[in-house]
Amino acid sequence: MIGFAIDRATACDATAWLAAIPTAIAAIELLQVRRSWCDRGVWGWPLLRGELRRLPRAAQSLLDVALGARGFTAVLALQLAAAIALPWLTGPWPAAIAWACVLAGAFRFRGAYHGGADAMLLVVLGGLALARCDPDGALGSLGLAYVAVQLVLSYFVAGLVKLREPSWRSGAAMHEVLALPQYRAPAWARRGLGSRGMARAAAWIVIGFECLFPLALLDARAALLLGGVAIAFHAGNVAVLGLNRFLWTWLAAYPALLLMCTDWLAR
Fold first, then answer.
1. Is residue 105 within 8 Å of 139, Cβ to Cβ?
2. Structural domain tally of the chain?
3. Nearest CA among 254, 265, 170 for reference residue 219
């Protein structure tokens, strides 16, 4: 075991500081593209609400208020306020409010603007809210343990999926991702992974650390090593693909993992 330990209070505080960043970024990014989801936009609520015709009228009316242009603007403003409050207020409400706002956005767009980063952010905020409901009790431990396990599974499942895909084992998937027009990968990245050998090596590094990530649950040294590789992976995704919220969202889950390694497993 390495020569440091992290207690639950420190883990909660670190999670709150780190989770505040992607929570705020998500709200700001959506506010910046408000024209696309205003009532006359391509993702306007009058168009999206057609998918919910089977819901009771009372539920539809409530969603019209909350997810229409004005209501959703208020939801995003509330999300931004909750993000600012997360590091400063130690009760469960900032995390719970942020969780509800992110969930409302995920429900509204159902994949158009929201994806894996938002799913993990819901895990982190939900676990943090539980932990702060019961700082010294079993519920607090359960909330942070849930975050740690979901973090490990997020890598492990992704690694198994890649391992089963011939395009990932050969490195071809790297070329396919970099060629996607929505990412606008820089030329230096396309050149660096242009050769088949480099692409295959990079693909196997990703597959390897993802499949081995459950070892992080067994030892803090393994958690730091695998976590360092994972953070470098996310930082590379920011530089190459522009996936900025993935870095901060996954970082916010690491204090729970370190707590699990240095405190709970040591017992």
1. no
2. 1
3. 265
